[in-house]
Fold this protein.
Amino acid sequence: MPTRPDSNTNDPCLTCGACCASFRVSFYWAEADSLHIPIALTEAVNPVYSCMAGTNQARPRCQALSGDIGKSVACTIYAQRPSPCHEVQAGDEKCQKARARHGLPPLPPLPTLSSRPTDTVPDSIPT
């Protein structure tokens, strides 16, 4: 997901935007109201779900995305973005799939729990 303009300049999302132009961004309709997402940026999927305008088509591109994919992008409603936008993280499976769809190179994989440093925990606590 593209990030806000004041984010870290090393953030790969600032030059990507592939996730915003690869998936339908669906959410419970009331989420748009609670986040104050402009109605022009949403469309109904069915009586219960809405999606970000532009994402419910064969070649999706969220209308809240500005810029050129793979060059420089931003989400125009970053602070108000719906929950599905929080789910995709730089380097995760969805990110890699979206980047491949747009001909962008993969990002390094995200660290896994087994590759993170851990504190040693005693097998038992003395009593």
Summary: The chain has one domain: 12-104. The first helix runs from residue 29 to 35.
